[in-house]
Design goal:
With 206 residues, the protein is of the alpha+beta class. It is built from four helices and eight strands. The strands form two sheets. A six-stranded antiparallel β-sheet has the order 5-4-3-2-7-8.
Length: 206
């Protein structure tokens, strides 16, 4: 697998090249659900809108709701896993008032770098308070709430690991490209593999 890092300027050219070549889809921003606040991913309006449109299209196909303007009593953490050539995945932890949780896994039959396809998996399991506490402990340990949303390092033929949190009126999102270690890798792997038990072959884990 090619994992080529790009700087922010190259990334912008990369996205535009995809559009002009017809590989990426276009969406009507007025008809689309607003999944992220403006300037979430970049101060550059065009680049920001391209990323927002891409991720929003995937989340809509996964039949997920926006998190950034939910009520203050909601406690939700979501991992969006967009692998270029493999099925898009969303794993969402909803924490109940008693401290236990519900873990929902959704998968579409498209690809993270292309059209999202249709929903093929939608299942929810219950988590104990101990399991939820383990996730929250890792959120604190990794200093998730203070991590920058984006880094100046992206690539192609990899994966976007996107973790969102809405907890007690706070909202934060962190987006990383093909991490192999670090906070977002640890949190994403915990949600998708350790807790949701998604069976991902070694050659599709990236």
């Amino acid at each position: 697998m090619v994992r080529k890092r790009l700087n922010s300027v190259s990334l912008r050219n990369y996205w535009f090249a995809f559009i002009f070549c017809g590989v990426m889809w276009t969406v009507d921003s007025h008809a689309q659900t607003t999944y992220f606040p403006p300037k979430t991913f970049s101060e550059n309006r065009q680049l920001d809108q391209l990323v927002i449109s891409s991720y929003s299209r995937q989340l809509a196909a996964l039949k997920e709701a926006p998190l950034w303007h939910v009520s203050s009593n909601v406690r939700t953490y979501r991992f969006l896993w967009l692998r270029t050539f493999h099925h898009p995945i969303a794993v969402r932890l909803d924490i109940r008032p008693n401290g236990a949780g519900a873990l929902t896994t959704k998968i579409t039959d498209g690809a993270g770098g292309y059209a999202p396809g249709k929903l093929i998996t939608d299942k929810t399991i219950n988590l104990s308070k101990d399991d939820v506490d383990t996730v929250l402990d890792n959120i604190q340990r990794t200093k998730f709430w203070s991590l920058p949303t984006s880094e100046k390092s992206y690539g192609d033929d990899g994966a976007q690991w996107v973790i969102e949190a809405a907890d007690g009126g706070r909202y934060h999102i962190v987006d990383r490209w093909t991490p192999t270690k670090g906070p977002i890798y640890d949190l994403g792997k915990m949600l998708a593999i350790d807790l949701a038990k998604i069976n991902v072959p070694a050659n599709e884990f990236y």
